[in-house]
Specification:
By secondary structure, the protein is an alpha/beta fold. Helices cover about 35% and strands about 15% of the residues. The protein has 15 helices and 15 strands. The chain has helices spanning about 5-15, 40-45, 55-65, 80-95, 135-145, 185-195, 210-215, 260-270, 310-325, 340-355, 360-370, 380-385, 390-410, 455-460, 490-500, and strands at about 75, 105-110, 150-155, 165, 170, 200-205, 220-225, 250-255, 295-300, 330, 415-420, 435-440, 440-445, 460-470, 475-480. The strands form 3 sheets. The chain has an 11-stranded mixed sheet, with helices on both faces. Strands 4-5 form a two-stranded antiparallel sheet. A two-stranded antiparallel ribbon has the order 12-13. Helix 9 links the parallel strand 9 and strand 10 (about 330). Helix 8 (about 260-270) runs antiparallel to helix 15 (about 490-500), helix 10 crosses helix 12 and helix 10 (about 340-355) crosses helix 13 (about 390-410). The longest helix has 22 residues, at about 390-410. It is globular. Residues about 1-30 have low confidence and may be disordered.
Length: about 500
Amino acid sequence: MAPTRRDFVANSIMSLGAGFGAGAVLPFGGAPDLGFASATEAIAALRSRRISSVELTRLVLTRIERLNPKLNAVVNVLAESALARAGDADRAMARGRTLGPFHGLPVTIKDTFEIKGVKTTAGFEPLRNHIPMEDAAVVARLRSAGAVILGNTNVPPLAGDWQSDNPIYGRTNNPWDLGRTPGGSSGGSAAATAAGLGYLSIGSDIGGSIRIPASWTGIYGHKPTLNLIPLRGHIPPMPGAVGPPPSLPVAGPLTRGADDLALAVRSLGGPESPDRIAYRWELPPPRQTTLRAFRAGYVLSHPACPVVPEVREVLEAAIDKIRKAGVRLTEGWPEAVDAAQQFKTYEYLVSVATFAGSLDDAKIDQVRQLAAHPDTSLGVVMAKAQTDPQKLIAARDAERIAARDAWQRWFEHHDVFLMPVVFTTAIQHTPPQTPLPTSDGVRPYMDLLWWIHSATLTGCPATVAPAGRTRSGLPVGLQIMGPYLEDATPIAFAAHLAEVIGGFEAPKGFA
């Protein structure tokens, strides 16, 4: 069997230490192959003392200085504090102490998660000078796990678009094609991870904001089970706002390796106080341990949102390889799942989550008039979400729970469900809401929302894995939906998938 990328990097790490003696630390610059190592591989190099955290952090900071200007992915570089934190990690290691599972690992944070004492803007002009007084939950957990925080990554204003562009920091470019977006709203995180500007990044997702950027930049992304990873300290809502537990949005990791996703979920998941006084959480093991043992359903298109031919070609080739690997595949939606109807429910509830309570008195009558229209266009759906009485909103939320139940019954006899992430490859930079030219004709901008709805509506986990590239060289991801609370199952499928499809590939020009 030909050596895998993992074998290559592992051998590279081992060879880098030759001649330095047991436990030696490499001089800075001695580990160029670690620029695109996975987080798991980089942690192994740190643990074996083949490289120090200071050296690894300098390596990434040098890459940021050289490569970030053409991407604008990392918009606030915390070089001084990162090197200080890396030094702490090295001193702890010298005393035989490990700070946690991410000991000394350089990571980035989406600029929607508050970082204590660091400007956190969510790309929103009124928050241009916002300095949080405490860390968001995921930031605090990353610190507790020993991570080195390199800086903030770019977003659209209030995480509200599939392109990462805002009036504070400007536009982020895709490392595979600088004329295209890496996606949004976790686009800066995805571009930085794909370009080797950190070993892991934390994003958030309500409308595909982890999954679409992962697909468009050729990396791994994971939308966890709802409320598995705390969202406290995320913007939106606005700083200081208090409300009920979220019913749609989540926080999750973007990485260059599937194993990194599992490590991140284990390290970041679980309840916060006061809930953790009463109970603990652990990640259930994956249902299967080999690819051929998985029972999978799949769909590659839907009349409501057809996939363009070049994306479908990549996904069909991936499904063919999965079938040849022995996976038991069943084509078609679960019998109890009406995908088009569930999308309508999701579209309504995401509008409630995004826009409810945002109206002022001057606009309320105008919006009520729009809500009275009989059609089902998105504008009317959004108007209803802002003006409907609570009992109607509660009824639609009951549909959300019913959708989860329908999927969970299907997962009693299947392990994962495979589908597209998004109908097209990374789009050219364009004004938001502009119709999108594709090889299959002009498509509505909001079609970008369609394929991510099943996992978001139900709260189920969904992993994105690289599926290949189009003939023009653009990445395409495969979405792997798993059972509620069983995040390790779709992540494990993604890891095994690399055995037959291949995993992350570095974009040209970023070595």
